[in-house]
From TrEMBL:
PANTHER family according to UniProt: PUTATIVE (AFU_ORTHOLOGUE AFUA_4G14580)-RELATED, STERIGMATOCYSTIN 8-O-METHYLTRANSFERASE
Keyword annotations of the record: Methyltransferase, S-adenosyl-L-methionine, Transferase
Any GO MF annotation of the entry: O-methyltransferase activity
An annotated GO BP: methylation
UniProt cross-references to Pfam families, sorted A to Z: Dimerisation (PF08100), Methyltransf_2 (PF00891)
Domain O-methyltransferase dimerisation as annotated: residue spans: 88-151
Identification of the protein by name: Sterigmatocystin 8-O-methyltransferase
Domain called O-methyltransferase C-terminal: residue spans: 189-395
Organism annotation: Colletotrichum higginsianum (strain IMI 349063)
Entry superkingdom: Eukaryota
Cited PROSITE patterns: SAM_OMT_II (PS51683)
InterPro entries attached to this UniProt entry: COMT-like, COMT_C, COMT_dimerisation, SAM-dependent_MTases_sf, WH-like_DNA-bd_sf, WH_DNA-bd_sf
Amino acid sequence: MAIAKSTPRIVELATQISKSVADLQAVLDAKGVPSPSFDENAPPKLPKEANDAQDAVLDATAELHDLLLEPVTLVLKNSANNSMGSLGFMCRFDIPNMVPLGGKLSYAEIAKKTGFAEFVVSRFMRDCVCMRIFRETEPGVIEHTKTSKALRAPWFLAWLRAGAEEGWATMLGVVDALQKWPNASESDQTSFNIMHNTTGSYFENVANDPEKAARFGAGMATQWEFPGYQLEYLLDGFDWAALGPVKVIDVGGFKGRISIALADRFPNLNMLVQDMGMNEKEAHAAVPDELKDRVNFMAHDVFGTQTESADVYFIRQVLHDWPDKYGIKLLRSQIPKLKKGAKILLNESLLPETPGSSLPLWKERDLRTMDIGLLATMNGRERTLKEWKAIIAEADPRFVLQNVVQPKDSMLAVMEIVWNP
């Protein structure tokens, strides 16, 4: 009896890509959305109904691409970060806003505006063109793609500049930091401290540098635009209305963007935003008039003893910035004001237990890269659900993890913890 010949993996992948692209295009046709392109005015996002097909295409194309590379080329692709130099050049001189929308700009003109030789400008900008940021429509002349157009937004450009000028350098010392502090449990024992020759934590350094503080704020705003991190997942994916009329403390809530969005959507919520070094009057002034009575602000050390009683304590992407012992400390600091049945809602990422087990690989790769960035910068970490459970249990056995909600396509889950003394 003849043994059936198995289909080669590259053929399987090509078939899967073809089917998934057809599925994706069907969604676009049904929604009246044009097919993706790099054109300056092309839609920057796909409709959410296309997310499943998008995941399938991106994972399959990435695997097919990697299968066709020799090992040395595959490693080189994943280790070559020299393009951060090109991105840094583009950001520092704000090239996206230098190039007119719907127009063109020559390397010679960029050279005049920046003060560099044309051949220097062309080296950086042609690297950007190869990343599909701008396109060279004729020799020595560039125009926008949808990506370079998106980078005209101040928050997006500031975030990328922070990564190019600070984040890249920080990553270079991550192994040195591990060797210097092999059992580090402090946020000032990091690659950031080594590479920037500084003491104190990243947050302390940012607080003392207005320019870095502005870039940090821009980075926060940028992350809310990343696929899977948008506020709609939090607003739509958790049953806030079912909580009834409640007081919610947004612990480490920065400038209150999330609290404002929650109060605007849910009239049953009264929000109090707490964070360190907050200017309460300035923050409250930015709240829409119709919400001012339900969104308030309070300067508070998030690791200090909680002084305000509430029904719900909401903590979004704060604990991932810190080593385990500080996450435990922050949870314990809420206990003095907790009443029976009070809830703590942790809004954090859940790392898959093993690669490919619960997320499309292209999304997991981004999450694991973020995890290494947190290690290098603050000794923070992304955690698996098992690791989150361990922190909650260590903080106090009276904390009961009652529910975990992760909306479809969201990169963040809501872990609902109930205080049961």
